Amino acid sequence: MTQRIVIDPVTRLEGHGRVTIELNDAGEVQDAHFHVTQLRGFEKFVEGRPFHEMPSLMARICGICPVSHLIASAKACDQLLAVHTPPTGKSLRRVLNLAQMAQSHALSFFYLSAPDLLLGMDAPPKDRNIFGIFESDPQLARDGVRLRQIGQQIIEILAGKRIHPGWVVPGGVSEPLTAEKRDLMLAMLPEAIQTTRRTIDWFKTTFADFEEEIRSFANFPTMFMGLVGPDGEMNAYEGKLRFVDSEGRIVADQVDPRDYADYIAEAVEPYSYLKSPYYKPLGYPDGIYRVGPLARLNVVDTMGTPLADRELMHFHRLDRHSSFHYHYARLIEMLYAFERIGSVLNEPTILDTHVRAQAAVNAHRGIGVAEAPRGTLIHDYEIDDDGLITRANLIIATGHNNLAMNKGVLQVAKSFVKGDRLTDGALNRVEAVIRTYDPCLSCSTHALGQMPLVVQVMSPDGQILDEKRR
Ligand code: MG
Ligand code: NI
């Protein structure tokens, strides 16, 4: 006989999710799940559509991370054309991808997680939001708003519109960069870098306050996966896949992303519509791995930019398994993104007007892989002779992390949930461990925006013993 505590939906996540915590008769946590309860039909929906529509169509999967889908989709289409994208076209896509990483990380860190990090996991729920940060640390709040804004402004300068930009097309980008726009972007970077460094300096002083969270927030050995360049450096736009084991040893390296299916398989669990990918050679569920900021910083040898590399040295001395450190990894990547945007925009050929390769269909399968803010994003398309999609498979970051998030919820629930009543602090920590992964539920479900929190404690026969609403 078991009792279930239901947290539905999880607050301050981007989208919609549900958590259930199952108690045994002794009132101890027995099992826990993070459910993604709605199915996106995008893979089916695109069948029969012309491939060249895919980038702009895919950008509509998600209101949270349209740029990431746009880029992975365009890369898949490049392969259907079987063209070499002009180097300047690639560089401009790279800047867009980095700007998306910066703005998304700013949203996750400052708006969604900083309330817990600044005010504490036990602070009153009414204060744990961006307004609470404005009250107690206006500088931090302003920094967060500004960093997100700079990322969004760069996206807008390049792609025109903030959401669903159509500037990225199969074969490259539709318009070259002007000197005026380049200089506008370059002028924002010193402030962005200085502000990110200030946030990092503050955040590192808080680690001592979160020892219990660092120890219990999805802290267990797993593999990690991410894209790296030829020298093991961070390369979010076009690296090759690297897998490391739980000790940090490289087990597969420089894997062409087009061979992903040799290394990754997807399992289906009854509690979620989201598939659970795993590392194929180890099988399911032993092949659990994580992606995203923590994973990328655990797989790379170097960031390749001076300030981020200095932080990486510090990061590599921390507990590599604790998902609490996704936050710090996110800040380091933000710093990297702004540094790297600067070096790409200073490339002597960045204003070159040859930014797009034109061709008809030359291949029947295209696989586009890029590092999205939340982790490795895979778009895999097959087309017929007329260029119509016959099969599409997408693997999103929230999918890769599905197993680890479930395991993390169980670990936190075991540490903080006592008895059949949820304390507010326990409830918040269950949500907070999921927030470390910044899951994009908009991608995997259809829901956008946030809904009020309902928490139910269920008896074995389904009666509600306790209910909380926020
Ligand atoms: Mg899929
Ligand atoms: Ni998304």
Which helices and strands appear, and what pairs or packs with what?
Layout: E1 3-8, E2 18-23, E3 29-35, H1 42-45, H2 54-58, H3 66-81, H4 87-119, H5 130-136, H6 138-159, E4 168-169, E5 172-173, H7 179-204, H8 211-216, E6 223-228, E7 240-244, E8 250-255, H9 260-263, E9 264-267, E10 276-279, E11 289-290, H10 293-299, H11 306-315, H12 326-345, E12 365-372, E13 375-383, E14 389-395, H13 397-400, H14 402-416, H15 424-436, H16 441-444, E15 454-458, E16 464-469
Helix pairs in contact: 4-5, 4-6, 4-12, 5-6, 6-7, 7-12, 10-12, 11-12, 14-15
Bound molecules: magnesium ion and nickel (II) ion.
For the structure shown, list the relevant keywords:
470 residues, alpha+beta, Cytochrome-c3 Hydrogenase, chain B, 5-stranded antiparallel beta sheet, 4-stranded mixed beta sheet, 42% helix, 18% strand, globular, binds magnesium ion, binds nickel (II) ion
Overview of this protein structure:
This protein has a single domain (41-401), classed as Cytochrome-c3 Hydrogenase, chain B (Orthogonal Bundle), CATH 1.10.645. The strands form five sheets. Strands 3-2-1-15-16 form a five-stranded antiparallel beta sheet. Strands 8-7-6-11 form a four-stranded mixed beta sheet. It has helices at 42-45, 54-58, 66-81, 87-119, 130-136, 138-159, 179-204, 211-216, 260-263, 293-299, 306-315, 326-345, 397-400, 402-416, 424-436, 441-444, and strands at residues 3-8, 18-23, 29-35, 168-169, 172-173, 223-228, 240-244, 250-255, 264-267, 276-279, 289-290, 365-372, 375-383, 389-395, 454-458, 464-469. It is of the alpha+beta class and 470 residues long. The protein starts with a strand and ends with a strand.
